[in-house]
Design goal:
Number of helices: 5
Number of strands: 0
Shape: elongated
Largest sheet: none
Length: about 170
Amino acid sequence: MTSERLPSTSGPRHAIILLMALGYGVFLAFMVFWPSPIDEPIQGLLERAISELHERGVPGFIDYDFIESFSNVLLFIPVGFLFALMVPLRWWPVALLLGPALSVGIELIQRYLLDARVSTVDDVIANSIGATIGVLLAVVIRAVVKARDEKVIERHEALRRTRGAR
């Protein structure tokens, strides 16, 4: 009787996650370590666009600061998602700490090495919220995939036992 083992997909999966992390890491570094605020060249345009939106009924709380903070949340969702994919599923709480730690590191570099950049606790909070959302999304997806994989393996084993009993 020959042993039928399911092929492992861990190697390719880990390589893809690593490539995604490296690619996003380069993008993130570009965004956060640019010597001047990344939106500086279009700040006037942004302010006019926000003013136009307010004239068309968009609530007043959606201002430049809100959009900047929301952008930070969105920027860090992939960070948390990738961190949560890189650690073993049972260690996902560790990934919750990595996003805020990275954010604090970025803000410290901006504060002490990039004179034109503004470093704030609000940015750390927004980045941490985004990273947490990303971690939670990855944990849910990984749990669903794990449950599906276990069912597939169970069916495969049942078929193998049925064929072996003949």
